[in-house]
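Thread: quick sanity check before group meeting

JM: Hey all, I'm pulling together slides for Thursday and realized we never actually wrote out the predicted structure for the chain we discussed last week. Dropping the sequence here so it's in one place. If anyone has concerns about the input, flag it before I start.
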Amino acid sequence: MANVTKNRPLSPHLQIYKPIPTMVMSILHRITGAALYFGTILVAWWLVAASTGAEYFEWVNWFMGTIIGRLILFGYTWALIHHMLGGLRHLMWDVGYGFEKHFSTKLAKANIIASVVLTILVWVVAYIIRT
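JM (edit): ok, ran it. Output follows.
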């Protein structure tokens, strides 16, 4: 179909729509899903280091203990928790619940808040157990 008005795009995109919480959470769900591939490579790297020998394993542990390594691990933890909570939200939709506009908006906002809180909680507990 031809664009008769020439004033609007044939296919609206993100620059046209006003961001709403459910849309932002959908985009973040896709981004965190992709980030988990990188995190899985980190887990595999750690396992390979553990099987290679003590010296390499100690180096990998040292790197993960640096500020950059901890930031990467913190981001991986958040991505894992956020993606899991988003998956639970999608599961709820798959069984037919939560389609009401106000409820889905509250659930989207709760998803981001809960993922941040749970990530911080996981790290606090890890530091308490470690010491």
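AS: nice. The helical segments are 21-52, 54-65, 67-94, 101-130. The longest helix spans residues 21-52.
JM: adding both to the slides.
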